[in-house]
Amino acid sequence: MSELNWGLIAPIIILQLLLAVIGLISLAKAEVESVRGPKWLWVIIIVFGSIIGSICYFTIGRKAY
C-alpha cells in the first residue's frame, strides 16, 4: 500500500477550509435581501458541498448590486 502524498493533498484541504470559513462569514454578515435563496440552504451547500459549494455561493448565491 502506498503512502499519501501530503504535499499535494494539504493545500487542497487548506483551500477547502479557507473557502468554507470565508463563505460562512460572508453569509452571516449578508442581509437576507442580498442572498439568492434561504440562508440555511446556503449553509448546507457551503458545508457539505466542499470547494464547489463555496464557489457556487460566491458566484450564484450573492446578488450583485
Automatic annotation (TrEMBL):
Residues 19-62 form the Cardiolipin synthase N-terminal domain. This is Transcriptional regulator. InterPro entries: CLS_N (IPR027379). GO terms for cellular component: plasma membrane. Pfam families: PLDc_N (PF13396). It comes from the Bacteria. The chain crosses the membrane at residues 6-28, 40-60. Keywords: Cell membrane, Membrane, Transmembrane, Transmembrane helix. Its main location: membrane. It is a multi-pass membrane protein. It is found in: Cell membrane.
